[in-house]
Specification:
Blueprint (H helix, E strand, L loop, with lengths): L20 E4 L14 E8 L21 H4 L1 E8 L12 E4 L4 H5 L15 E9 L2 E5 L26 H38 L26 E3 L6 E3 L7
Antiparallel strand pairs: 1-4, 2-3, 2-5, 5-6, 7-8
Protein name: UPK3B protein
Keywords: Membrane, Transmembrane, Transmembrane helix
Organism: Scytalopus superciliaris
């Protein structure tokens, strides 16, 4: 068949990961060749092993997932051919490598286990009936998975910035400090002015206190001639000479 499998073209979270990839589901591809009892398989192989892949003559000869490290290929995702008909409602993608239970349980049946390496891989769809293969698609283009980084390759020291970046960061930090100081100074002056106005107001002089200097008492002065003492309590009187006759 002229159909070429491909990774799903729509935007999809996790379309390609380190162990899986999402394929576009083929639709209306096998309608003219399939019967009600036929099934569609997906053959997965390393990109350099497609030339040696041979279609199995029966379901009993399908290469299982556990033989991928040695046989470099396997078959999975057995699905009734009716699920790929034009009128069949079905999901838009097929997730290859999404069954983590295959590796853990060690099942003998073909399963859809996680892919063990980045690949690259190539895939094709194979229509099989009771007597063996009936139709097949072309092989896909190589599909390369994401490569997980080893913890030993991660640099714990952050990269150093260039001199231009350091200068810009220093200028920005200085401008931020100046701006913060200006804002705080303006707020402080405003608060201080409001407090002084409230405390002083119109009673500025009423609250102001004065402290006088100490003035020593006056010492008694000697009496001038002709001065006599007045009766007690009247103080000192000046005696004037009598007027001339």
């Amino acid at each position: 068949l002229p159909y070429v499998p491909r990774v799903a073209p729509m935007a999809l979270l996790g379309k390609v990961t380190a162990t899986t990839f999402a394929l576009e589901r083929p639709c209306c591809i096998f309608d003219q060749h399939a019967s009600a009892l036929d099934s569609v398989w997906l053959a997965v192989a390393f990109a350099n092993a497609t030339a040696t892949f041979r279609n199995p003559p029966s379901r009993a000869d399908v290469p299982p997932y556990k033989q991928l490290p040695t046989a470099h290929s396997y078959m999975t995702l057995e699905t009734a051919a009716a699920a790929f008909a034009c009128s069949a409602p079905s999901p838009a993608v097929l997730r290859v490598g999404g069954d983590t239970a295959c590796r853990d349980q060690g099942r003998q049946d073909p399963c859809n286990g996680p892919l063990p390496s980045p690949g690259p891989y190539r895939v094709k769809f194979l229509l099989m009936g009771c007597h063996g293969p009936k139709a097949e698609t072309r092989w896909s283009h190589p599909i390369l998975l994401h490569r997980a980084l080893s913890p030993s390759t991660i640099d714990p020291v952050p990269p150093r910035h260039g001199s231009d970046v350091v200068v810009i960061m220093s200028i920005l930090a200085s401008l931020g400090t100046v701006l913060a100081t200006t804002v705080l100074g303006a707020l402080g002056a405003k608060v201080w002015g409001s407090l002084c106005h409230r405390d002083l107001g119109t009673s500025t002089f009423a609250r102001r206190s004065y402290r006088t200097h100490h003035i020593p008492p006056a010492l008694p002065q000697p009496l001038p001639p002709g001065c006599g003492c007045s009766p007690p309590g009247l103080g000192c009187l000046t005696l004037r000479p009598p007027a001339p006759c």
